[in-house]
Amino acid sequence: MTSKNIKAPYECMELKEYKLSDFVPEFSEFRQSDDLSRFGCENIENNLIRLEKRGKIHFENRIGICPSCKSHHTVKNGTYERKLIFLRIGEQICTIQKYKCKKCGKVFYSDLSSLVYSNSNITLPVINCIENLYQIYGAGLHKIRFDLKQQHNIEISHQSIENILLKSKYEFNYENRTYSGYYLFDSLWVKIKGKWNYLLALFDVKLNTLVSVKLVESEDSKTIYQFLHESLRNQEKISIGTDLKHEYREAIDKLKVKQHFCKFHVKQNINKRFRDYFDKNQLEKEEFNELIDLKRHIFKILDAKNLNDAKNLRNLLLDKKYSKNNFTIKIVDKFIIPYFQKLTTHLENTNIPSTNNKIENIFQKIFPKHIKRTMKIEQGLLRRFMLKLNHWNIKNKKEKNHTSF
Ligand SMILES: [Zn+2]
């Protein structure tokens, strides 16, 4: 029999205070809650025990239960070695207890399912750590890799980290809660395998939280309607803010909910139409001034402090003397007048925001442009986005709770 030196079990952990149990086999049952939390293993099953045997980490079940016949009449039957990657101590060769069922004769291994996926050697706490680094710091793969090496003595490839993020089990948490009735809706264009897709998002203005998110292939009004209809089933529906896309308008009208156009988008749109018209037409100074005056009047309506002012300004616009042509008719008679209500809902009800800034800020924060361009895989895209949204939602709720005290 060869004699082996019994090494200190955690050579790489300088801060650890050694206990007698770390050196004596069978003494160091992995039970104390501080031990569990040190390795991020709080969720490990009670029946899974971690021991130190000759400097090696050993896993066995408190009670070996036969997976075939569920019998508890089992005996230990040798061990096998398995490489596992842990928080703080990195890669370790572990021994895993094997058992034999006395009833049916089957040989089986200790159940490690609460610690590691069967097809992986990266333990679940490490996977959680990677997901958190990604969510909380928005850390890229290189940063995550660096951090794992620095903090946990873990060396795993970029590809493994990427795979973990892509396979992340996280689903957007559609809490069963009551929403306020005041929403913003927007979509984000993302290119997946060379094809444009749309990430639809609905946001609750009063609760400051995302209601739902969905990746779809088309932005037609039927798809939008389905998304809104499903997201707001059995919820209060008072108003939804959007930009000017007619698909959104058709969907929200069908939903029979008040729609308000984002003031920022409206102004941007009107500015662009005037600019294009000036660019394409050689105007007499008189006509040019008249149009500038018309634009100012329209902006006054949009910026009105209350609904009465807005209505008076609209009536003045109807009486206003300006040359009617295709351009002015399109703006005044086909947009400002018929959609007056959608342009001024925020004046009727102070719960309704005048712009869609809030939801656009979330998109910008979570999904900067450079990330959008590099997204290739549908599942990965959604997983990553959900991870970040999840963090945004948690952080936001915390901040909100904090300020309410
Ligand atoms: Zn059995």
From TrEMBL:
<feature type="domain" description="DDE">
    <location>
        <begin position="186"/>
        <end position="273"/>
    </location>
</feature>
<dbReference type="Pfam" id="PF13610">
    <property type="entry name" value="DDE_Tnp_IS240"/>
</dbReference>
<protein>
    <submittedName>
        <fullName>DDE domain-containing protein</fullName>
    </submittedName>
</protein>
<dbReference type="InterPro" id="IPR032874">
    <property type="entry name" value="DDE_dom"/>
</dbReference>
